[in-house]
Amino acid sequence: MAMLDSLRAAYDGKLLVDADDVAPYLTDWRKIWTGAAIAVTLPETVDQVCTLVRWCGQNGVRLVPQGGNTGMSGGATPPAEGLNLVVALTRLNRIRAIDPVNNTMTVDAGVILASVQEAARDAGRYFPLSLAAEGSCTIGGNLATNAGGTAVLRYGNARELCLGLEVVTPTGEVWSGLKGLRKDNSGYDLRDLYIASEGTLGIITGAVLKLYPQPAARLASLVAVADCGAAMGLLEVLRARYADRLTAFELLSRECLELVLRHGHDARDPFGESYPWYILIEFTDFTSEEAARAAIEEALGQAFEDGIVLDAVIAESLAQTQVLWALREGISEAQSAEGPTIKHDIALPISAIAAFMPAAVEAVRVSHPDIRPVLFGHLGDGSLHFNYSPGPGEDKASFMARQAEVNRIVHDLVMAAGGTISAEHGLGVLRRDEADAYRPTAERQLMRSIKQALDPQGIMNPGKLLAL
Ligand code: FAD
Ligand code: 2HG
Ligand code: ZN
Q1: Between 142 and which of 3, 43, 147, 189 could a Cys-Cys bridge form, CB atoms 3.0 to 4.6 Å apart?
Q2: Atom 9 of ligand 1, residue of closest alpha carbon
Q3: What distances in angstroms separate CA 146 from CA 143, 157, 177, 424, one per listed residue?
Q4: What is the pLDDT of residues 99-137, one digit of tens each?
Q5: Which atom belonging to ligand 2 lies closest to the Cα atom of 331?
Q6: CATH topology of domain 339-438
Q7: Residue 86 DSSP SS3
Q8: Measured on CA atoms in the order 379, 433, 80, 171, is the torsion positive or negative?
Q9: Could you say which ligand is closest to the alpha carbon of residue 131?
């Protein structure tokens, strides 16, 4: 095909065109969206990325940046129509530099998150971004979606962990903002504009990341509570007492634990009886593991006496801490293993969550009594995965036919409570139109102006984040 010949003449990097090779890049992790592309490219240098962007601009081809393809909103999947080119960044994967004095690491965008963590560890430092997909997602994808994960309570989202970016703009030029500065007020913040832009304004090719001291004496506990009100009470007590040494506060319902017990390898219930809700808490940076254990025991003992906590197990070792984490981190895979899912990636003011949870569960139950709530999330930072799975015997088509109405019920309540319907996974195609409908007019106009100004040809990740 003439178009591919022209691409080959312009670009000398790896190119996939055979249907079998291309297929994995055309379907998302949840297997909801499948698109089409003339080819998949895997550039290894920033120059090659520039060449691809320029070639696309000259040939009316749209680019779809892709990292590890673990996103949950369909952002990395090409549209089903039109001329699309997938630009997979996984071969742009060098650790460029580590500056131990500045506590920064400069990386290519395609470095896998677990490799960033490992490189930080090897340098005696810590990179805190942590999520269950860390073995396959890339730092570029994390920044393009402003990923959150399980360490936000103490360290913030991907945005807070990034000091500088390098981006190939829609005209194929490089904007080099790879500064490792903690203060820099020199005009509009392009770094913050590109973070969470989901590949719609350019391709992130490099980043300067913040490093931290390695946390000491890590210890987790799984705590059983009666409801979200009790969970919030526990959060308040622990935060007031231990501040930043409480590094994780993750919620999971009984339904979530059962899903993981059914589908997770070697997973077992650490309690002898079942409870409605569990909180996975983690403490770090005590003087020793014993000191951390004594602090957890004391805090939970008091909470038990006050009727906040029903039961608790405290890890005896780092290995047991990891076993407890596997129960939390296995939820997404377990829910997918059980069939189709309706997901709500929401965040609320922490003070609104105790009232929101039962109200939203009840509002959905009234019109959809058979579907199963699968409720979990990063309670400590106010973000929740308010998900659903089909009830017994319900087929996929009938379950998915409920999606729009369930979304409306949940999201109307979220917005009324001052929350957001897109906390950490990005809008992609999944939340694009709903988010737009809830947006104030001024915000909608500003967003469109930005897209129009930076990408007037509309070649960057078409149809994602904003409908134009
Ligand atoms: P992709 O899926 O490839 O892409 C995501 C988006 O970013 C797309 O719009 C794509 O076009 C764009 N993009 C990718 N790379 C670039 C680039 N270099 N330049 C510009 N745009 C780019 N997310 C959380 O926030 N918290 C969690 O706890 C969490 N847990 C997860 C657990 C599992 C099991 C899975 C499968 C996913 C989870 N996620 C979570 C979703 C999360 O957004 C992704 O895992 C990750 O941040 C996306 O990285 P990726 O490299 O896979 O990006
Ligand atoms: C998590 O917190 C991820 O485990 C995935 O953000 C959430 O599967 C989901 O809905
Ligand atoms: Zn999450």
Answers
A1: 147
A2: 75
A3: 5, 6, 17, 6
A4: 999 999 999 999 999 999 999 999 999 999 999 999 999
A5: 4
A6: Alpha-Beta Plaits (3.30.70)
A7: strand
A8: negative
A9: 1
For a substitution probing ligand 1, which of 32, 33, 72, 376 has the most ligand atoms within 8 Å of its CB? Answer: 72
Q: How far is the CA of 330 from the centre of ligand 2 (A)?
A: 9
CATH topology of domain 2-88: 3.30.43
CB 103 within 8 A of CB 213: no
Question: Atom 10 of ligand 1 has which residue's CA nearest to it?
Answer: 76
132 touches ligand 2 (CB under 6 Å): yes
Q: Crossing angle, helix 289-305 and helix 228-242, to 10 degrees?
A: 130
What is the tens place of the pLDDT at every residue in 166-183?
999 999 999 999 999 999
Encoded tokens for 266: 């070697």
- Its pTM stands at 0.97
Whether CATH 3.30.70.2190 fits 219-332: yes
How remote is the CA of residue 76 from the centroid of ligand 1, in Å? Answer: 8
Domain parsing of the chain, residue ranges:
2-88, 95-213, 219-332, 339-438
436 φ, ψ (degrees, to nearest 5): -65, -40
Residue 235: name the closest of 143, 344, 153, 118 by CA: 153
User: In CATH terms, are 2-88 and 339-438 the same topology?
Assistant: no
Q: State pLDDT tens for residues 209-265.
A: 999 999 998 999 999 999 999 999 999 999 999 999 999 999 999 999 999 999 988
Residue 153 has pLDDT above 90, yes or no: yes
- Residue 258 in tokens: 């059962």
Token reading at 319? 């290995």
**Secondary-structure class of domain 95-213 per CATH:** alpha beta
Q: What ipTM does this complex have? A: 0.99
Q: Work out which ligand 2 atom sits closest to the CA atom of 332.
A: 8
The 14-16 sheet, strands edge to edge: 14-16, 39-42, 84-88, 62-66
Give me the pLDDT at residue 265, please: 83
- Pocket test of ligand 2: the residue of 136, 150, 332 to mutate, having most ligand atoms within 8 Å of its CB, is 332
Ligand 1, residues at Cβ distance < 6 Å: 29, 64-72, 75-76, 89, 109, 131-133, 137-138, 140-142, 144-145, 147-149, 198-199, 203-204, 332-333, 424-426, 428, 461, 464
Q: What is the DSSP letter of 390?
A: P
What does the pLDDT read at residue 468?
77
In angstroms, rounded to a whole number, what is the distance separating the alpha carbons of residues 447 and 82?
24
Q: Render pLDDT for 65-95 as a digit per residue (tens, 0 to 9).
A: 999 999 999 999 999 999 999 999 999 999 9
What is the layout of strands, in order, in the sheet containing 203-210? 95-99, 104-108, 203-210, 162-168, 174-177
